[in-house]
Design brief:
This protein has 136 residues and is of the alpha+beta class. Helices cover 34% and strands 18% of the residues. Strand 5 and strand 6 form a beta hairpin. The longest helix is centred in the middle third of the chain and has 18 residues.
């Protein structure tokens, strides 16, 4: 198990060192976005400085921080249209796999996955991109 190093910033988290995780995704070409790289072999590198909001809808615990980080990064790539939206189930399956690796109880994994099934990939859809604001 690879550990992650992060700081808490209000209701969000910021990664302090790059983190690489094997995913179920196998894109045809390398995908690069700001602070995210996904190789053709499925390795997702989340670079230092990446921010995520933890596990939405459930309590953030040590046993779900890595899973939430990778899941949020993959969903972001889908919202940006860099991974097809229909692949959200693979991101969800990877979330469960990491929960298991990090010692989450089976009951907890089932509850967390039930929440993801209810959401049905909604938050991975490109229509869910956050509005950008500009100031002078």
């Amino acid at each position: 198990m690879t550990k992650i190093t992060y700081i808490k910033c209000g209701g969000s988290y910021q990664l302090m060192e790059a983190y690489t995780v094997q995913t179920l995704m196998r894109p045809e070409a390398i995908i690069k976005a700001k602070r995210l790289t996904l190789t053709q072999g499925g390795k997702l590198t989340i670079h230092e400085g990446y921010c995520w909001d933890g596990c939405s809808g459930i309590v953030d615990r040590k046993s779900n921080m890595r899973a939430g980080l990778g899941h949020d990064a993959l969903y972001e790539l889908m919202r940006k249209g860099l991974i097809p939206h229909h692949r959200w189930r693979e991101a969800d399956a990877g979330f469960a796999q990491i929960l298991d690796e990090d010692g989450a109880w089976n009951f907890t994994i089932k509850i967390d996955m039930a929440g993801l099934r209810i959401a049905n990939g909604k938050y991975a859809h490109p229509k869910q991109r956050k509005k950008r604001f500009m100031a002078p």
